[in-house]
Design brief:
mainly alpha, two-stranded antiparallel sheet, about 45% helix
């Protein structure tokens, strides 16, 4: 990783890297958890109708993968009727595709109404990946979202993936990683 830090020993105080290549961007901006990113800043330069526009993102990388975008959607839509669908998509991607874990085993770790909510999220995850969606619709109350979020977090805790949940919700302390 190229690192330019302003010091008396460095000939360089600033470096600009411009790219259209998203893979190169991902590689050059990779930082392990806990690494200080105060020295990196991100901008997106766009040109529309012959007018250039630069948008600053400070030290928050604006380029994300689809999995990270799901977590962002979760954080932005906590009151939405779409929240359970977002949660089940995160569970599906993380447990099935990334972790290779059997999410069905998580249901038995819950009791009462939390067990029903967990089973609902898991069944939606299975149905979404194995069956044609035939425009089923359920009236969902946004007041239930708090329950879904609580069970969603508990799934990660029960399965030993609490740190992943914290990282994706930006609750993890950068000093402890």
């Amino acid at each position: 990783m190229i690192q330019v830090v302003n010091s008396e020993f460095s000939r360089y105080t600033q470096m600009f890297i411009l790219t259209h290549n998203l893979y190169f961007h991902k590689e050059i901006t990779y930082k392990p958890i806990g690494e200080n990113s105060n020295y990196q800043n991100y901008w997106i330069l766009r040109k529309e109708n012959n007018i250039s526009n630069i948008q600053s993102f400070k030290n928050e990388n604006p380029i994300k993968n689809s999995y990270s975008l799901l977590w962002d959607e979760m954080k932005l839509n906590k009151q939405s009727s779409l929240l359970p669908n977002i949660l089940r998509r995160i569970l599906e991607v993380y447990f099935r595709h990334f972790g290779g874990l059997n999410i069905d085993q998580e249901i038995i770790k819950f009791d009462g109404s939390d067990k029903l909510i967990c089973a609902s999220l898991v069944k939606w995850a299975h149905d979404g990946s194995h069956h044609y969606q035939d425009d089923l619709y359920m009236q969902h109350r946004s007041a239930d979202n708090e329950k879904f979020l609580k069970v969603f977090e508990q799934i990660f805790i029960n399965s030993g993936h609490k740190n992943h949940f914290k990282m994706m919700t930006k609750e993890i302390d950068n000093k402890t990683g």
